[in-house]
Write a structure and sequence with these properties.
extended; two-stranded parallel sheet; alpha/beta; two-stranded parallel ribbon
Length: about 110
């Protein structure tokens, strides 16, 4: 946590998400340890508990399927091309998400990005 807070630029936000064990950070004093001009937020999926949360999640799934949300997809690689996928990401050539399919043939799924 402290490393993330030190690395974010002034005006930046550190978001804690996916903490399965809850929000317990030993020896963490937010007032003293969050740098001036930096924000700390958290998202816990238990916020979406119950039928209201399930309805929201289903709405998002429906909208993704309907094409309302367009993913920022760069390229799709076959598993056999994972080295090329990593090289593309490490060279900062990807202009969106890089997807690696678990099967050997990604033909037809590839985009020229």
């Amino acid at each position: 946590m402290l490393d993330s807070l030190r690395l974010v630029r002034r005006g930046g936000t550190v978001c804690v998400a996916g903490s399965l064990s809850g929000w317990l950070i030993p020896d963490f004093e937010p007032i003293a340890m969050i740098p001036t001009g930096t924000r700390l937020t958290a998202f816990h999926s238990d916020t979406l508990k119950g039928s209201a949360g399930q309805g929201l999640l289903q709405r998002i799934v429906d909208e993704v399927e309907a094409g309302v949300y367009r993913p920022g997809l760069d390229r799709v690689f076959a598993l056999d091309d994972i080295v090329a996928a990593h090289r593309r990401m490490e060279a900062d050539q990807a202009i969106g998400k890089t997807v690696v399919l678990p099967w050997a043939d990604a033909t037809g799924a590839c985009t020229d990005g």
